[in-house]
Amino acid sequence: MADSSASPFPPKPFEGRTALVTGGSRGIGRACAEMLAAGGAKVGVVYAGNTAAAEETVAAIQAAGGQAEAIQCDVTNHEAAAELVKKVVEDWGQLDILVNNAGIIRDGLFATMSPENWGAVIETNLTGVYNFCHAAIMPMMRARYGRIINMSSVAAHYSNPGQANYAASKGGIEGLTRCLATEIAKRGVTVNAVAPGFVQTDMTEAVRNAAGDIITKAIPRKRLGKPEDIARAVCFLADERSDYITGQTVTVDGGLTLGG
Ligand code: NDP
């Protein structure tokens, strides 16, 4: 652990560390993967099916001098997640940082929400986090070190009509985060969540196109979030020196949920 006279922003805080970022091929996850790699981590870019996007992300990281590998894995598949983490630990020697970021939306009013759209969101957003945490905590506890960051959303706390499935998944993530944090804190593993507001990614494209500048006007900071805004908070929590922060949710929303 660095002493209090050390720089808060060393150039390579993740040197020698390994990381997995689920949904690391696009949007917020890509920014997390790129920032962790720029900080010295070797990064596994986990994606569902868009191989071209994953390869593009890995190429961008490598072109910038970082280390990354694209790894296809559906986060809803418990056995596949376990196998992936086991292989990373075997091949890379350890897993230090896990960013559970993969997520989807299937919006619709509750009265007409199908079991398929309920289940797909819960399985991907919440069970996916369970699957990867479950696979990662034993090796992390054995190593007496780990940083887990789960991607929540302001939707966990603030009501968005049409997002009951999504809000339930993100609320679940925050509960899981707090509970797991208390269970494994003594083993040197921290578990935190980041709750983004409205970020410019593929996920929000349709809403952005429909809403025009209404959203920007509602954000006190007067701009949409960029993936890097969220990645910065993730990297802060992933830092070795963030050792005394666990079980927390950091909101990154430009003031959207302040109600001003
Ligand atoms: P994008 O839609 O831009 O990217 C989603 C990523 O998740 C892709 O890499 C995709 O892989 C991957 N993914 C989706 N399903 C699976 C799966 N079953 N298994 C593995 N990977 C999967 O999303 P965002 O970057 O916008 O969102 C990232 C996270 O941030 C999500 O958890 C989301 O809920 C959260 N968030 C986003 C906000 C926003 O405004 N954008 C606001 C609040 C929270 P592939 O490319 O192969 O499809």
UniProtKB/TrEMBL annotation:
Catalyzes the NADPH-dependent reduction of beta-ketoacyl-ACP substrates to beta-hydroxyacyl-ACP products, the first reductive step in the elongation cycle of fatty acid biosynthesis. GO terms for molecular function: 3-oxoacyl-[acyl-carrier-protein] reductase (NADPH) activity; NAD binding. Its EC number is 1.1.1.100. The lineage of its organism: Bacteria, Pseudomonadati, Planctomycetota, Planctomycetia, Planctomycetales. Residues 17-197 form the Ketoreductase domain. Pathway: Lipid metabolism; fatty acid biosynthesis. It comes from Alienimonas californiensis. Belongs to the short-chain dehydrogenases/reductases (SDR) family. Homotetramer. This is 3-oxoacyl-[acyl-carrier-protein] reductase. Pfam families: adh_short_C2 (PF13561). GO terms for biological process: fatty acid biosynthetic process. NADP(+) binds at G23, G24, S25, R26, N101, Y166, A167, A168, S169, K170. Keywords: Fatty acid biosynthesis, Fatty acid metabolism, Lipid biosynthesis, Lipid metabolism, NADP, Oxidoreductase. Gene3D superfamilies: NAD(P)-binding Rossmann-like Domain. The keyword Oxidoreductase applies. InterPro entries: 3oxo_ACP_reduc, KR_dom, NAD(P)-bd_dom_sf, Sc_DH/Rdtase_CS, SDR, SDR_fam.
